[in-house]
From TrEMBL:
InterPro entries, sorted: NUDIX_hydrolase-like_dom_sf, NUDIX_hydrolase_CS, NUDIX_hydrolase_dom
Entry keywords, A to Z: Hydrolase, Signal
GO biological process, one term: nucleoside phosphate metabolic process
GO cellular component: nucleus
Database matches in PROSITE patterns: NUDIX, NUDIX_BOX
KW Hydrolase (keyword) present: yes
Superkingdom per UniProt: Eukaryota
UniProt keyword tRNA processing, yes or no: no
Name of the protein described by the UniProt record: Nudix hydrolase domain-containing protein
SUPFAM superfamilies: Nudix (SSF55811)
Name of a matching Pfam family: NUDIX
Length: 214
């Protein structure tokens, strides 16, 4: 039933001309999990070539923004400068410590903004934060392999209100503030020891390019 719905969805996309002329011949889920499914999609290109796609279909809770998750760029501006908050987290898929933006899953009926503030509260105990920017659209996390989608928000907060985190999985997550003016230098240092999430790396490169560092 679900794969039938997926086929309908893809046919719908195709019919709207958004499918780049791909015709979906078959969509199967040979492996169904609790958080994600393994999905195999067979398609035909305009020229008649048959292709096969293997994707990780992440299970999305029904919510107004229709995304799986949200990444938060948490900014603190005080007398000594501008700082961004990152998490150093041990990640099982890559078996590595990874520098990431605070992020979380969007729950049922929750907006991405609400999810970001909830995660920040859970991770840092922080309450008085302002969401000063929210992406209008959705950002795929790895569009060639998965249908996982997220939004990005910018949260401004005052460092004095941040409490030390006591997350449930505290052994696996460490908050890390990095000053904007040191960010590129710090990332270059950290990348010799840890993996850096793609969006964090791109963010740091953007700042380095702006500052003429690269
Ligand atoms: C989500 O919202 C819908 C529509 O208002 C409602 O029927 C449903 O019970 C809600 N689900 C949860 C888990 O709150
Ligand atoms: C959040 O917004 C309120 C109201 O505009 C403002 O008073 C407060 O200073 C803001 N806090 C931060 C951390 O920007
Ligand atoms: C500003 O915030 C950063 C990050 O939380 C903190 O390390 C620093 O001590 C703060 N500076 C002042 C003057 O409060």
């Amino acid at each position: 039933m679900r794969s039938f719905i997926s086929i309908l969805f893809f046919l719908h996309v195709y019919a709207n001309g958004e499918g780049a002329g791909l015709e979906i011949l078959q969509s199967r889920k040979p492996c169904v999990g609790k958080y994600s499914n393994y999905k195999v999609i067979q398609f035909k290109t305009k020229s008649g070539k048959i292709g096969r796609w293997e994707i990780l279909n992440t299970i999305r809770h029904p919510s107004p923004d229709n995304v799986n998750g949200v990444s938060a760029i948490v900014r603190v501006r005080n007398a000594t400068g501008t700082y961004f908050l990152f998490n150093k987290q041990f990640r099982v898929p890559t078996q590595s410590w990874t520098i990431e933006f605070p992020a979380g899953v969007v729950d049922t009926n929750e907006t991405a903004k609400e999810a970001a503030l909830r995660e920040l509260r859970e991770e840092t105990g922080y309450h008085a934060a302002n969401v000063t920017f929210e992406s209008k659209g959705r950002q795929p996390t790895f569009s060639s392999r998965t249908d996982d989608l997220q939004k990005h928000v910018l949260i401004d907060c005052q460092s004095t209100d941040l409490k030390q985190a006591s997350p449930e999985d505290e052994e696996l997550t460490y908050p890390l503030f990095i000053k904007e003016s040191d960010l590129w230098h710090e990332i270059r240092r950290l990348e010799t020891k840890y993996d850096i999430a793609s969006n964090v790396y791109t963010f740091a490169m953007g700042i380095a390019i702006r500052d003429g560092l690269i």
